[in-house]
Design a protein that fits this description.
seven-stranded mixed beta sheet; alpha+beta; single chain; five-stranded mixed beta sheet; 273 residues
């Protein structure tokens, strides 16, 4: 495996240091009453999200003034489309879990270059799990190398995702087929789910509803550097920093299991995002 470029090593170190610092803000608010409001139905935000977003933006853009910026909690500046390098940020991924004082949220900082994720940090400040990767450098958890699992079959796999999705009646309608027996759990943070697959704690994660760039970019590179695959349900690669920041679906697993999941999903017809 070639070594990561020196600039990516420096960018990853910057992001990890800054994200870990932002974890202090999250811990300050976690488990305590804080101001909360809805951006849209079922889409809450808290004063902690905003505080972390402001801190990350101030530190990261000061250090890399030529980079673009895309964050869930910052008004979109389309000048990012003109930048080769763009920070993609989710100050708190899994805000509902954060509000409920469940340690299932993460702070996510990804770096996208020419539309592809090339470096990322996914940090759970409560469990002190810091997943990180830069292209060509492998993936780590708290500095130690990690790798995806070797489980090759859907049956018996450890799957992360909402149980209701796997039990939906549509799976019984041909040409679809019901899911085999699996261990199914979920986590509030989508990025955390991908990171736990990268770590081999789970075998796969699947989302068939639309996600955003900031949900996935940081974890995408971590999974791929851990030997896994991250694509849409049709097998196509995820592309970031486009005008529309929507990723319709995501399938994440080791290569063999990923292939089995893509084959199972090939006949699935989903509404457009």
């Amino acid at each position: 495996m070639p070594a990561p470029e020196a600039d990516l090593v420096a960018d990853l170190a910057l992001m990890e240091t800054t994200v870990r610092e932002a974890g202090g803000i999250a811990r300050h608010f976690f488990g305590h009453a804080c101001k909360t409001w809805d951006k849209s139905k079922g889409n809450p935000v808290t004063e902690a999200d905003i505080a972390i977003d402001r801190m990350l933006r101030a530190k990261l853009t000061a250090a890399r003034p030529d980079y673009g910026w895309l964050s869930e909690e910052t008004d979109d500046d389309l000048s990012r489309l003109e930048r080769r390098d763009v920070f993609v940020i989710d100050p708190i991924d899994g805000t509902i879990g954060f509000i409920k004082a469940k340690p299932q949220f993460t702070i996510c900082a990804g770096l996208v270059r020419d539309g592809a994720a090339v470096a990322g940090v996914v940090y759970n400040p409560i469990t002190e799990e810091c997943f990180a990767a830069a292209q060509g450098g492998g993936a780590t958890l708290n500095g130690k190398p990690i790798h995806v699992s070797r489980h090759e079959h859907i049956e018996g796999c450890r799957m992360l995702g909402p149980r209701s999705m796997f039990e939906h009646e549509a799976w019984a309608q041909p040409p679809n087929t019901p899911w085999p027996a699996m261990t199914i759990e979920t986590r509030n943070s989508v990025a955390y789910r991908l990171a736990l697959v990268a770590n081999g704690a789970f075998d796969a994660t699947l989302a068939l509803s639309a996600k955003r760039d900031w949900d996935l970019a940081a974890a995408d590179i971590i999974v791929r550097e851990a030997g896994g695959c991250v694509t849409a349900h049709d097998g196509s690669a995820l592309r970031y920093n486009r005008r529309e920041t929507i990723q319709p679906t995501v399938v994440c697993a080791n290569p063999a299991l990923h292939g089995a999941l893509i084959a199972k999903l090939r006949d699935l017809k989903l509404p457009r995002a």
